Amino acid sequence: AQSVTQLGSHVSVSEGALVLLRCNYSSSVPPYLFWYVQYPNQGLQLLLKYTTGATLVKGINGFEAEFKKSETSFHLTKPSAHMSDAAEYFCAVTLSGGYNKLIFGAGTRLAVHP
Amino acid sequence: ETGVTQSPTHLIKTRGQQVTLRCSSQSGHNTVSWYQQALGQGPQFIFQYYREEENGRGNFPPRFSGLQFPNYSSELNVNALELDDSALYLCASSGGGTSGGLNTGELFFGEGSRLTVL
Fold it and tell me: Which of A1, A29, A113, B19 has the fewest CB atoms nearer than 10 Å to its CB?
């Protein structure tokens, strides 16, 4: 069975500081991995995804994530936080070749303070 | 290009009632999936529809049912509402062409319908 663990339900950083949101997954087969962002009272928006190929994936708004199979991790980073990055972030996993059943983590709420 | 739209945005029901939530998929998408997001949690997969048939279901009881129409829009129906059904219900569309409902790697979500059960 697949699962996702996001370490830290709340993360707080200063504007301009590094953002690091942690995600570990469990999957018996090669996974597809995703990061979604949810702003207040809105649906989810895809930040980036890993399916195959290059393990360092770049997404929108300056975010990137690296797939590390040996560590079963897919941590999300951004070199310099902006106030507009404050939101809820969800890591998700699904099976390649399967139907679109995403398994989401519980989410990490990112706060950015001046 | 029209995104995923859901209605209603908010609604309040009482225990035992029935509710229908609606979703219009993004233009060109033939697959719709529904997720339940309880407060403070990540979304949980309810089911997926492809070409008007359910082709995947999560761990939800039969009182959660759905439909997909020829124009790929969809409905989520919940009977005999319980207090724990209070949540944000998210619709997501994906796929197109010959993807066959299989994982194409990205879902496009609507803003959700927030259901409160009293």
Answer: A1
Cβ neighbours of residue B11 closer than 8 Å, sequence gap 6 or more? B19, B113, B114, B115, B116
Kindly report the backbone phi and psi dihedral angles of residue A62, in degrees, each rounded to the nearest multiple of 5, phi listed first: 80, 5
Q: What is the mean pLDDT of residues A31-57?
A: 89
CA–CA dist A86, A37 (Å, integer): 10
In this model, does residue B98 exceed pLDDT 50? no
DSSP letters for A9-36 = SEEEEETTS-EEEEEEEE-SSPEEEEEE
B104, A100: Cβ pair inside 8 Å?
A: yes
Q: Do the chains contact at B90 and A99, CB–CB below 8 Å?
A: no
CB distance B43–A97 less than 8 Å? no
Question: Taking CB atoms and an 8 Å cutoff, what residues of chain A touch B102?
Answer: 97-100
Residues B80, B82, B85, CA angle at the centre, nearest 5°?
110
> Could you identify the residue written with the tokens 């759905």?
B66
- Chain B residues with beta carbon closer than 8 angstroms to that of A45: 109
Q: Which residues in chain A have their CB less than 8 angstroms from residue B41's CB? A: 106-107
Flag if A90 and B43 touch (Cβ within 8 Å): yes
Count residue pairs from A and B with Cβ separation < 8 A: 76
Q: Do A99 and B56 touch (CB under 8 A)?
A: yes
Task: Name the residue with tokens 């995403």.
Answer: A102
The larger pLDDT score, comparing residue A2 to residue B13, is at B13
* Residue B65 binned pLDDT confidence (cut-offs 50, 70, 90): very high
